[in-house]
Specification:
Muramoyl-pentapeptide Carboxypeptidase, domain 1; three-stranded antiparallel sheet; 3 strands; Arc Repressor Mutant, subunit A
């Protein structure tokens, strides 16, 4: 009886060990290019290539998969981390790598992963085939599906309590900045410029936008600009910056004053 118990115990231990080994072997095969190195701005190589490819498959990254960890990659990482409940610092350590692997277990490198960025990205996971045509139909500004999604996030985070025309106005300000030589020439550059938008500072940029916010972005892209070309806006009730009050004011829409 005792020998049988020992035998059963040994068999159970071997089975558990086998299952553990199989699980980790599978993880190792899927992420064989992921080393133990922490990835951050300035990193490069195969680890970053896989990182970008996986983020692109999920719709968080719409740039070129070039193996170089730059500003756009950091923004994609930060977005992914926030969505998955991780520390949103843009630094890819063991926890972020594991969470990314779990979210993209079926991912495999493809030719599409190394194509140029822009309209090749998708706004959400599993929608890459439609994103290009949607972008071409929706704008002539060369904006990607992720640009449109990010703008909708910003509009919703900044102005969801405003009348619809006020939401269009916020979207128009973002586009006016992209076109202005005084600001970054990309949507993500404008939105994530330090101190530019309250929604970025307080995390509301990552709230899920509603249909009104998406339509407001579309109307702005189609040429509607209720602000007449303004580059700034502020809420007079909450604004504490003396500088913003010094800007030439054009009009008030909802609770925001729009200015040059």
């Amino acid at each position: 009886m005792r020998n049988r118990l020992i035998t059963v115990t040994i068999v159970i231990v071997l089975l558990l060990f086998g299952a553990f080994t199989l699980k980790h072997a599978s993880f190792g095969k899927t992420t064989e290019t992921f080393s133990s190195a922490t990835l951050k701005v300035g990193s490069s190589g195969k680890d970053v290539t896989e990182l970008q490819g996986r983020l692109k498959a999920l719709g968080y990254f719409d740039g070129k998969v070039d193996g170089v960890f730059g500003t756009n990659t950091k923004k994609a990482v930060t977005w992914f981390q926030w969505k998955f409940g991780l520390k949103s610092d843009g630094v890819v350590g063991a926890k972020t790598k594991l969470k990314l692997w779990e979210a993209t277990k079926n991912w495999k490198p493809s030719a599409a992963d190394t194509s140029s960025g822009g309209s090749s990205g998708s706004g959400s996971s599993g929608n890459q085939n439609n994103s290009g045509s949607d972008v071409n139909k929706s704008n002539n500004l060369g904006l990607s599906a992720n640009d449109l999604k990010l703008m909708a996030n910003a509009v919703y985070g900044e102005s969801r309590g405003e009348p619809f025309i006020g939401q269009v106005a916020v979207a128009a300000v973002i586009l006016n900045r992209v076109k202005s030589p005084s600001f970054p020439n990309t949507v993500s550059g404008v939105i994530f410029q330090p101190g530019a938008f309250t929604a970025v500072a307080d995390g509301q940029i990552w709230l899920t936008p509603n249909e009104n916010a998406k339509k407001a972005v579309q109307d702005a892209i189609n040429g509607l600009d209720p602000t007449g070309g303004c580059l700034y806006y502020f809420n007079p009730v909450t604004a504490t910056s003396k500088w913003i009050w010094s800007r030439p004011q054009v009009k008030t829409i909802g609770k925001h004053i729009f200015c040059m």
